Amino acid sequence: MRSVGKYWMEIVDPMHELWTRVSLTHDANLLSMILQKSSTQSRSILYKREEFDFIDGASTSEEKTAGFLQYITPSAGRWKSLEYCARPDAQHERMLGLPLHNLETLTVHIARTAVNYSGVFDAPRLRELDVCRLSLSNRTLSDLRSLQIDSCVPGPSVDKVHNILKTSPGLEVLELARTMTSPTGHLTDLDDTH
After folding, report:
1. Long-range contacts of 117-121 (CB under 8 A, 24+ apart)
2. Has residue 39 got a pLDDT over 90?
3. In this predicted model, what pLDDT tens digit does every residue of 2-37 receive, in sequence order?
4. Are strands 134-136 and 128-132 parallel, antiparallel or unpaired?
5. Rounded CA gap, 13 and 24, in Å?
6. Is residue 126 within 8 Å of 104, Cβ to Cβ?
7. 159 Cα distance to chain centroid
8. How many CA atoms lie within 13 A of 165 on its CB side?
9. Which residues contact 95 (CB under 8 A, 6 or more apart)?
10. Pairing of strands 192-193, 173-177
């Protein structure tokens, strides 16, 4: 909207709430402008990498990814939502290991193969979690409103699900789909459970 003309630029520039969505597909100039104009607003981050690039019609180089991370990681404490799509061999800690103290919504989709992420995960205000092919092993999740787990191996243990239910009294959505694990106390043989 800003590029339409001077009139629109005068309207759009001071509206900080319009400058809160940041995507890996943005070029460096637009990223810089968004970060400057969003001021102290919460941010929504879209990180789609590698085989997910076909959605946006362009390939994302490692150099562009590194530049994107350099721009956005200093503001990780202000992120409100993160949509993270990556290959199984990506360095997931570069995004998930950040201090995400104000993150409320996290969507993670890993391409092709399930991954067990055991790195640091610090998101105490997380309320909505949607993971596909990523196990957040040994994580304490509480006060969730929505938890969706798809194709995670190993899936959460029955004890972990019980603990999440106990520590998330406001949970409105619990969806476990195609989550299989061993018969040693973990959820097993689930096609879809809602």
Report:
1. 117/92, 117/93, 119/92, 119/93, 120/93, 120/96, 121/96, 121/97
2. no
3. 454 565 556 666 665 666 667 777 677 777 777 777
4. unpaired
5. 21
6. yes
7. 25
8. 9
9. 47, 69, 82, 84, 86
10. antiparallel
Longest CA–CA separation in the chain, Å:
65
Dihedral angle sign, alpha carbons of residues 177, 137, 125, 33: negative
Tokens encoding 104: 């409320």
Residue ranges of the alpha helices (H) in 55-133?
62-72, 93-96
How do residues 46-67 score in pLDDT, each as one tens digit?
A: 887 654 444 444 445 677 788 8
What is the phi/psi pair of residue 143, to 5°? Answer: 60, 30
Identity of the amino acid at 124: P
The Cα angle at residue 21 between residues 71 and 16, in degrees rounded to 5: 95
How many angstroms separate the CA atoms of 157 and 26, rounded?
39
User: Contact, 135 vs 116, CB < 8 A?
Assistant: yes
Long-range residue pairs from 70-73, CB within 8 A, at least 24 positions apart, any chain: 71/28, 71/31, 71/32, 71/35, 72/22, 72/31, 72/35, 72/43, 72/45, 73/98
